[in-house]
Amino acid sequence: MMGTRIKEEFLNNVVEKIGNKKGVYSAVLRVESGDNSFTWTGAAGDMQEDSQYFIASVTKLYVTTVVMCLIEEGRIELDDKISKYLPVELMEGLHVLKAVDYSNNITVKHLISNTSGIPDYFFHKQPDGNTSASELIDGKDGSWHFEKTIKLVKELTPDFVPGKKGKAKYSDTNYQLLGRIIEIITGKYIDEVFQEYIFDELNLKHTYAYKDPSDTKPVPFYYKSNKLWLPNYLVSITPEGGIVSTAEEVMIFLKGFFTGHFFPKEKIEDLKKWNVILPPPSLFFYGIGLEKLFVPRIVSPSKPIKEIIGFWGQTGSFAWYNPDTDLYFTGTTNQINGAGHSAVLKAILKIIKSEI
After folding, report:
1. pTM surpassing 0.85?
2. Exposure of 271 in the CB half-sphere (CA atoms within 13 A)
3. CB-based contacts of 340, cutoff 8 Å, min separation 6
4. How many CB atoms lie within 10 A of CB 110?
5. Residues 169 and 235 in one domain
6. Is residue 282 scored above 80 in pLDDT?
7. Could you list the residue range(s) of the whole structural domain that residue 135 is in?
């Protein structure tokens, strides 16, 4: 039924519109129904349907998966203090606000829900007014390994007290810490953990953690009209954004996530503890290792679009699921400045509206 309702011509037009958006030089969009009766992939610009790309922060959904698996194995709890896992010298002065040290109050849940108050090393303004993001966007490639990140973060002022009601702020630092905790619990590097728990489990052949700076397989991404190639940076940030994949294999993962392949699917409801988050490119909600798109009622007044859940990546990568229509969406636009995100959001809403 689904396959006869979504017309190929309509979808070709949708992906063409994404590709025609100013600033979008390459794009891929994959749409699938939950019952597998319908699958469609389209590409525009410099990309093919099977191109490998940096999934950026969509990687964080893979971290959520690993954490949920470790919970199922009884090896971690969301309410565990992170000081249970991390060494004393790392914890010292990690979160000091108005001369009070809250470092030992931080839990795993605070990290995975972006409610720790720990500053984001990536976008947080440093004392000289620069951000690490601005240097990278200028094309200055450099490693942001764990120790460097933590050293900088200890010099910055936290955003709020850990777990402060109604407060959340996107922070890549949280995921660097989560990655280290996973490594300590498993005794393996995070790329090996991803391989074991997810890539091998789903038999993904074109998905891997980016570890070799000379690897040029993934398509580059852009900031405005500048092509960025930042291999040393991407090698250093595996748990927050270092996975390479294809639209098809992100789709296999996304379906596995929502259908109970890794952990009981009823537990998805427990992840929906939403806080409003307002970084670029637009308003959205952050739960426990899960994001939800903000869809104003005016977009579909007579049939409201209730829920689109999944994850954005900074590079215009995405993995979203709409339970109303049982449709899944994956792909990327490889554009950091937000133009790609808005084009994809329009496309997804258009497809969902054609089905509700």
Report:
1. yes
2. 23
3. 18, 21, 23, 24, 27, 315, 316, 332, 333, 334
4. 25
5. no
6. no
7. 64-186
